[in-house]
Every structure is written in structure tokens, then in C-alpha cells.
Specification:
The complex is a heterodimer of chains A (113) and B (200). Chain A is built from 5 helices and no strands. Chain A has 113 residues and is an all-alpha fold. The radius of gyration of chain A is 19 Å and the shape is flat. The chains are: A mainly alpha (113), B mainly alpha (200).
Chain lengths: 113, 200
């Protein structure tokens, strides 16, 4: 995406309104997210001690931590309500981080990936 | 009619129509993601390659770290409440949450200090083995970020107590909030990859 495209998005009143139409989550929303975070964290610690789940723990932990990550980013950091430009910037940073992560492990620690 | 506060009360006259400070903060957080991604990759690269103990299984205390992780998660909730209150102009609530959040952050740091002390007593130092080096560098940098966040939030709280923070400059609280939430999501990843996946 070129900067000119970003300017275009911002310049069109209708789309600008789309960007700003989101309202802040309510107190009840924040409490619901907090409860969800608490439940997921409890689940993580609970299944850590469950022997029968040992075979799928990696997948479970990655899934549960992804849920927590997305809850914080979308609700507390407001990406769900804010301009898509912010989402794009952050997703780009995370994508580069994951690329560095995979490249490092693949080239220097061949046994790990 | 109740007023529904919007994320941006006014349309800014910038190239993107967005607040440049917020744009810069997201760019900074994107670069921080790469920074922590590199540190976590380094930790995993040398995982299980220490030639001598103590090993992670000898020192980790999952129940304790779970509690401190939960404290940091809840500090994100109080931070979100502070940002919401700032945008609504509810200054008393904003000041309360702006104080509670760094206090929770300090609790997390106290837990980390206790953990590091315990690990040190068990023989794990920065130079004892690869695990010690990579673990302390990763979690130490995270702790340093939390410390900076605590200082920023306490400064904001002091400014709010002096009446210098209100609805007109709620963006300052929002920017501090973005940084604080980022520190929280980094810990979500560290807790999972470093602590929970350790025995697997």
C-alpha cells in the first residue's frame, strides 16, 4: 500500500467516518474481557498439570496464548475499533518478528524446525 | 441523550487524518515486536543446550509465575479503564486507575525480583550456563520495559493530580496505555514459550 493510498482513505469523508465510527468499549466490555483472560490463564495453568493432555499441550498452549494476545490487542489496544492503518503497522511488525523467529531457528537451530 | 465518546473526537489535519503521535507509537511497537521476537528466538535456539545446571525444571515455579502473570494481565484491564475514563472526561476514575495500574506493575516487578533472587540462590546466574544467559536477558529486558512503563504511568498520574491531564489531552493516557498493553502481550508470549512449554 502506498502512502498516497493511505492519504486517499483519510481524505474521503465517508471512509474517514468509518475509521472514527467506533466507540469506546463500555466498562462491562472490559470486565468481560478481564474475566475471559482470567479463565484462559486458569485453563493454561490447569492443563499444565494434566498428564493425558501431554501430547497436545504445545498446540493447546499456543492456541490459548493466541486468544489472550488477540483479546488484549483487539479490545484493550482498540485495534477492533481504531483505524486499519494501525492494525496494518502492528501486523507488519509482528509478521517481521515471526519471520526473524523462523529464520533464526531454521538456519541456526536446524533441529528445532 | 447520553454522549457516546468516540475514539477520535475530532478529525485531525494530518496526511493520514490520524494523530501522528499515535501512528509513531504503533510504529515503535512494531519495532519492539521485532526486538522481542529476536530475543525469544535466541532463547529457544539455545533451549536444552546447557552443559551444566541449574536447568529450567530445577528453578521454575509455575504457580508463582502464573500469579504474577495474572497480575500483569489485570493491570492491562485497569489501564484500559484509565484510557476509557480519560476519553469520557471522568477524571477521578482516570486518576484512580492511573495509580492502580503502576502499582500492579510494581507488584509484577517485585515478583520478578523475588524469582530472580530465588534462581540466583539455586545457582542460576547470567553466566552459569546458556539457559541463565538467555533467560535473564529476555526476562530482564521485559522487566526493564515494565519499569519504564511504571515510570511513565506514575508521571501521568502525578500530572493528572496536578490537573494537567484531562479529556483534551486524553491521547497522552492512550499512548501510555498502548505501550503498557504491548508489554503485557509480550509477557503472554514469554509465559507460554519460556515457562509453560519448558518441560515439553
Amino acid at each position: 500500500m502506498r502512502l498516497a493510498d493511505l492519504r486517499g482513505v483519510a481524505a474521503r469523508p465517508q471512509e474517514r467516518e468509518e475509521i472514527h465510527k467506533g466507540v469506546h468499549p463500555t466498562l462491562a466490555d472490559y470486565v468481560r474481557v478481564a474475566v475471559a483472560l482470567a479463565v484462559v490463564t486458569s485453563l493454561e495453568v490447569g492443563i499444565y498439570y494434566l498428564e493425558p493432555l501431554r501430547g497436545v499441550l504445545v498446540e493447546l498452549f499456543l492456541a490459548l496464548s493466541s486468544i489472550k494476545f488477540m483479546l488484549v490487542v483487539m479490545w484493550y489496544m482498540h485495534l477492533r475499533f481504531d483505524s486499519p492503518i494501525f492494525s496494518f503497522l502492528f501486523a507488519f511488525g509482528v509478521a517481521v518478528a515471526i519471520a526473524v523467529f523462523i529464520a533464526t531457528l531454521a538456519t541456526m537451530g536446524a533441529g528445532l524446525l | 441523550m447520553t454522549h457516546q465518546p468516540r475514539l477520535a473526537e475530532t478529525t485531525l489535519e494530518t496526511a493520514t487524518g490520524l494523530d501522528n503521535r499515535k501512528l509513531l507509537m504503533w510504529l515503535f511497537l512494531a519495532s519492539e515486536a521485532v526486538f522481542f521476537g529476536s530475543l525469544i528466538a535466541t532463547y529457544l535456539l539455545y533451549r536444552g543446550q546447557s552443559l551444566q545446571g541449574p536447568y529450567p525444571g530445577d528453578v521454575f515455579n509455575i504457580p508463582f509465575t502464573s500469579v504474577s502473570s495474572f497480575i500483569l494481565l489485570m493491570s492491562s484491564t485497569t489501564m484500559a479503564l484509565a484510557v476509557g475514563a480519560a476519553h469520557r472526561g471522568q477524571l477521578h476514575q482516570m486518576r484512580t486507575w492511573l495509580l492502580v495500574t503502576p502499582l500492579l506493575g510494581i507488584s509484577f516487578l517485585a515478583g520478578q525480583a523475588f524469582e530472580f533472587t530465588e534462581f540466583y540462590r539455586k545457582g542460576l546466574t547470567l553466566s552459569s550456563n546458556l539457559f541463565g544467559t538467555t533467560f535473564y536477558v529476555l526476562t530482564g529486558f521485559h522487566g526493564a520495559h515494565v519499569s519504564v512503563g511504571v515510570l511513565i504511568l506514575l508521571s501521568l498520574w502525578a500530572a493528572a493530580m496536578l490537573g494537567k491531564i484531562g479529556r483534551h489531552n486524553a491521547i497522552n493516557v492512550e499512548l501510555a496505555g498502548l505501550y503498557w498493553h504491548f508489554v503485557d502481550i509480550v509477557w503472554i508470549v514469554i509465559f507460554t514459550l519460556v515457562y509453560l512449554l519448558e518441560p515439553l
